[in-house]
Amino acid sequence: MKSSRAFTLTELVASFVLVLLVFGFTQAIIGCDGGKAGAPTPPPTPGPAQLSPEAVEHLRKATDDLRAVAADLKDTAESLRKTAETQAQRTPDVDSSDLLAALGTARRNARQMQSSAQVRGIIQGMNNYAPGNNEFYPGFTSKGKEDQTPIAPGEDNYGVKGKTGHDPAYRYALMLRNSYFSPEYTVSPSETNKSITPVSLGGAAPGEVTANNFSFAMLELATGKARNQEWMATTNHKAAVVTDRNLGSDAGRSSGSVHTDGKAAWRGTVGFNDNHVNFETSNVLDLRYGENNPRVPFDNLFKTGDAPERATDAADPDAMMTYKGPSDGGVNQQP
């Protein structure tokens, strides 16, 4: 009977933690405006058009729906808390190790779910950007060339210094300054580097987006020809475009991620061009880049050159995710 009672209480506590974490993330999304409260409307920037009135209304309704979900989650969490307290009083002999294990599992699962939601939101922002930019994602011009338009940061908007479209920081800044998502989306809930925080319009460097303001890697564009074909709305379900970054010393056995404390092996969130997101347990996947290229069955997300020789499009029809861009010293995964 003891193990049966412990299992019931463990379930309750794990559910309570999960609901609290999801509720907290929901509140963070609907409760923030990217630090722009009371700020003047950002000036138009070259590239995508500003959001239409219909899109704004859609976002307003979606926010109202999120508020309703948050309220339901809050009520559910309170109900679970009371039930868990009552059950704990009835089972004082419950094994604490079971509870700790359940809490740890619930927290990890909640962070993984939250990470997937954030990556999906980033890719959705890229797809919302694309129609006003000839279907190209941020970082490219409407002609498919590297975007080198200066986007200066400041107290009224986000931007970068000395960076261009091949830099992930530039691409994040473009989407943030056009309000495609809030800064909180760019930092993983499992982030282990305490210096990585959402960009702010205040502080010593207001609005400046750097590698210390995001957790997720993006597709490398500086050397990729086939990869560049996927930096647009192709809906290719085999092309990874945004992922958790690699924290390891290499892309092989020494790879790691924020979900593994940078040790052991990499596992993390992978977002694809068609906006589906998976939480993968390996950085070697079955992928394809470029319309005329074959699949790469064992494609390392963080290593280029592992595509088959029969590929028809140059020598780079494989994945290569980058965290830092050329202005930060080249392709590099780690801050």
> SSE string, helix = H, strand = E?
HHHHEHEEEEEE
Low confidence ranges:
1-7, 31-49, 330-335
Main sheet attributes: strand count, strand direction, barrel closure: 5 strands, antiparallel
- The global form is globular
List keywords for this structure.
335 residues, alpha+beta, 5-stranded antiparallel sheet, two-stranded antiparallel ribbon
Topology:
Elements: H1 2-31, H2 53-90, H3 96-129, H4 168-177, E1 216-219, H5 226-229, E2 240-244, E3 268-272, E4 277-280, E5 284-287, E6 296-300, E7 321-322
Antiparallel strand pairs: 1-2, 1-7, 2-3, 3-4, 5-6
Helix pairs in contact: 1-2, 1-3
Give a verbal description of the structure:
The protein has a five-stranded antiparallel beta sheet, covered by helices on one side. Strands 5-6 form a two-stranded antiparallel ribbon. The longest helix is centred in the N-terminal third of the chain and has 38 residues, at 53-90. It starts with a helix and ends in a 13-residue tail after the last strand. Helix 1 (2-31) runs antiparallel to helix 2 (53-90). The protein has helices at 2-31, 53-90, 96-129, 168-177, 226-229, and strands spanning 216-219, 240-244, 268-272, 277-280, 284-287, 296-300, 321-322. Strand 5 (284-287) and strand 6 form a beta hairpin. The model is unreliable at 1-7, 31-49 and 330-335 (pLDDT under 50). The chain has 335 residues and is an alpha+beta fold. The chain contains five helices and seven strands. The chain is globular. It is 35% helix and 9% strand.
